[in-house]
Amino acid sequence: MDKEVKKDVERSILTYITNNIDLPEDIALGDSIKPGNSISYLMGPGSPGERYYDGRRKKHYLFTISIKDSNSLKAIELLNEIMDLMEIRGPNNLKSLSGSFSFVSSSMKNNPTYQGIVNDKGIERAVISGSFEVTVII
């Protein structure tokens, strides 16, 4: 069941982001190595959860989004927009695609952070990443 919930959380978050933000690129799973500007994400376990007496559980998932762009300010602005969407509008609007969880909250875990420069076919592109934790009840 946890595997199915995790997939639903992942799909629901990505659908929510792509439906509410005009992204310049598609979001790819894992470290994006394709040439040009790109957006990638990794999802993993977050802080420890809680088990309730009625059998429900509070779970936390950590999302790290990395943006590779020739304009680092544009990448930072996009990460901030994603973080605002998740923290401010998410709690009232984000829904499970399959009904496997109830969204509780999302919080930014770190500010957009410079990861380095990639020489991509002769063009230097900055890699900027940011993380947020999502809390759900399953």
- Report the helical percentage: 25-40%
Strand tally, please? 6
Low-confidence parts: none
What spatial form do the alpha-carbon principal axes imply? elongated
How far apart the termini lie comes to: 10 Å
User: Pairing-aware structural class of the strands and helices?
Assistant: alpha+beta
How would you explain this protein's 3D organization?
By secondary structure, this protein is an alpha+beta fold. 30% of the residues lie in helices and 43% in strands. The radius of gyration is 16 Å and the shape is elongated.
Secondary structure topology:
Blueprint: H1 2-20, E1 27-29, E2 38-45, E3 50-51, E4 57-69, H2 72-93, E5 102-120, E6 123-137
Parallel strand pairs: 1-2
Antiparallel strand pairs: 2-4, 3-4, 4-6, 5-6
Question: What keywords describe this structure?
Answer:
2 helices; single chain; alpha+beta; 138 residues
Summarize this entry quickly:
By secondary structure, this protein is of the alpha+beta class. The chain is built from two helices and six strands.
